[in-house]
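During the second half of the funding period, the structural biology subgroup turned its attention to how the target accommodates small molecules. The most pressing case was flavin-adenine dinucleotide, which had performed well in the primary screen but for which no bound structure existed. We therefore specified the complex as follows and requested a full 3D prediction, including the ligand pose.
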Amino acid sequence: MKNKISRNKFLKLAALGSIGLYVNACRTENKKKATEASTEKIPADTISIDISSSQNLIIHKKGETIYETLRGGFNKRIQKYPKLIVQCKNTQGIAEAINYAIANKLAVAVKSGGHCFEGFSSNNDGLVINLSLMNTVEWLDNSTIKIQPGCTLSKLYDTILPKRRIIPAGSCGGVGVGGLTLGGGYGFFSRKYGLTCDSLVELTIVDGKGNIHHSKDNPDLLWACKGGGNSNFGIVTEMIFKTYDAPAHFTSHRFKALNVDADRVQTIMEKWFQLTANLPVSCFSAFVHNGRTLNILLTDYENNVKTVQQFKETLTAFVDKITIGTPKPLAASLKNYYGIQYPIYFKNASAGLYENYANIQPFIKDVLQKVIDTPGMIYQINTLGGNINQLSFKDTSAYPHRAYPYLSELQTYWDKESQSKKYETAFEEVQSIFSNNHIQTQYRNYPDINFKDWQHAYYGENYSRLQQIKQQFDPNNVFGYEQGIERKINIS
Ligand SMILES: Cc1cc2nc3c(=O)[nH]c(=O)nc-3n(C[C@H](O)[C@H](O)[C@H](O)COP(=O)(O)OP(=O)(O)OC[C@H]3O[C@@H](n4cnc5c(N)ncnc54)[C@H](O)[C@@H]3O)c2cc1C
């Protein structure tokens, strides 16, 4: 690994660096990877639409250095080899690339920030539309911004925080606004202002027939893309968001227990669920169990002294170290959570959304023991809830899980490709504890290729309506992938 850091520091960065850190790509596809880069030219007779001289895009083929640079994603576990990577410069370029793909019968994948846990933003032998050049943030007025999907969260924060404005987005600096928003998106500010998608007021999209649509004319598309939009109906090219007043300061408090066993983690977990049941909306908490260490993070941006005191009083008897933070400027504080910025080997996925501790109490000790026995494995629970469950947000978005105030995630990190199988097997053993115990509600932005009924796990009762929208805007399944929304062929 180029940037060498100690394993402990790495796992700390990984877990707390992305409050909702962060993936089984189709195994057959993984195995099918090309062994050599090819310098193959596209046969002229297959190009019924010529995009080679378009000013709206740049085409990269196997064999080019830049193809290799753009091919990978954040997850080194997943390696895919598209036939072409097309860097689009604008909406028109995306429409041209899609029309080219349709004419040449190439499957289309789209990549914004490239942080998908399962590598759904690439494909083998198809066309990948890369949006890294479409990364601008433009102010439309004092509180409204237009963002292109390839903008990363670090660039977003660098642009809006100096104007004392915020969007309730995620914590990892390298995540793309595109993928994050279309799957929901949550972060430190979500309990007060809703999911990232709840701040989305308008979008432009190129559908599976190469047609450009604006959500003003298609309210259903806006609804669908708020939680169900990851490469299902088209490629989102621009998004307009409302912003909120940013707090000047942000405080992080930490509670740490060392040399823990499963019983102790479970005891503290029960206390944590009690403490977080009535958390003020300006606070966020994460419960992070990493081997023999347990970390609890409590963040606050409205000086909730009583809550901090309650955490301290309740946890003093159970943890070994308490670090009560002091308010720090917001921009500098958020940078502490940007996490690792270079590709790593990992398998992460949603391990269920919960209503309360009772959902997991009967079996969670088995999970905690497995985490202790598997170095590199982390089990984390994050607080959602608060205003995420507001009716106005529920009615206007496809994100279905608002009544679940806790989001858990299982994470595993390793150093070498040869270790992948071992860690994936351990990961699946833990995931099966959850599924055998009927934990079936999952976050689309934390996908796992092994989820059985992923349709309802991700989209709940909204799945059928999403299928109809899929049928309307991508009837030929140009954007199809392993867990892509299926078309509703027979609409009654
Ligand atoms: C380190 C790390 C930290 C994270 N932290 C958080 C967090 O704090 N909060 C949170 O909610 N989530 C978090 N996530 C999960 C994250 O929200 C998802 O991985 C998200 O989908 C990534 O978006 P992306 O644009 O970077 O990824 P990509 O891999 O580019 O895209 C993800 C998915 O969206 C589709 N997509 C991308 N752009 C478009 C587009 N323009 N139009 C249509 N479809 C598109 C892709 O095809 C793919 O299916 C984290 C993930 C990682 C790896």
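Two results from this model are relevant to the next phase. Residues 20-37+54-130 form a domain with the Uridine Diphospho-n-acetylenolpyruvylglucosamine Reductase; domain 2 fold (CATH 3.30.43.10). Residues 1-7, 15-47 have pLDDT under 50 and may be disordered.
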